[in-house]
Amino acid sequence: MTDSPALVIFDLDGTLVDPAGSITGGIAFALEAHGLPVPDAATLDSMVGPPLVESLARLADVPAEVVPAVVHAYRRRYISAGMAQSRPYPGIRELLDRLREAGYHLAVATQKPESLAKKLLTIQGLDSRFHSIHGAPDDETLPPLADGKASIVAAALSVNHAAPERSVMIGDRRHDAAGAAANGLPCIAVTWGFAEPGELEALDLAARVADAREAGDAVERLLPLDGRAVAAVAAPVLSGSADPEPVEADSCR
């Protein structure tokens, strides 16, 4: 217990980074390119967070045999323009610096393909603030992970040698809360993301926060540091971290 770092696990899109329409616009582009109807804006917004394959089938009624081609078109569009269009939410850089300097370990757990998550965080200048970055398999045409976000959160715990009772999840959707609960973690929900009306109110959350400062306050309240955790600031970046890697345009979204 005393050797376990205090770990804060962040979701990515809708929590750390505002896609600024790059995800929804890319999905609309890919659907149009294949002669498929584009859902309304609210439905497109609800597609931010879950695995793309799941959203295309469940929310856009894309036939199974067309899904791989739509995903491929989306990936190319997102890599060529979408990642640079995205922006960290206000106060996020300061929040990460605040927590890291205090002695927390920081990780990312996202259902975005892992290599793409690393590339996005590198482009936004956030990658070096995290001890590790975890995502879904890079082949996004595969069915979603059977346990949703749970195994991705579990990977963050394992790589950081963190105990659930010394960890917390921060996210904007019910998938984040479910992944946290499956691993015995409390979840802090941010209200600036892509949750549907009433979605957060229906969840068993440790806190709901309206800005980055409140998120930091909630972390410090739920996960107070002991004397040993401060030394974690100087720890080397762990395996599975955000070292920049080349990403092929046809291999991830």
TrEMBL record:
What Pfam families does UniProt report for this protein, alphabetically?
HAD_2
InterPro entries in UniProt: HAD-like_hydrolase_sf (IPR050155), HAD-like_sf (IPR036412), HAD_2 (IPR041492), HAD_sf (IPR023214), PGP-like_dom2 (IPR023198)
Q: Which SUPFAM superfamilies match?
A: HAD-like (SSF56784)
- Which Gene3D superfamilies does the annotation name? HAD superfamily/HAD-like, Putative phosphatase, domain 2
Q: Which PANTHER family match?
A: 5'-NUCLEOTIDASE (PTHR43434:SF20), PHOSPHOGLYCOLATE PHOSPHATASE (PTHR43434)
Protein name, UniProt field: HAD hydrolase-like protein
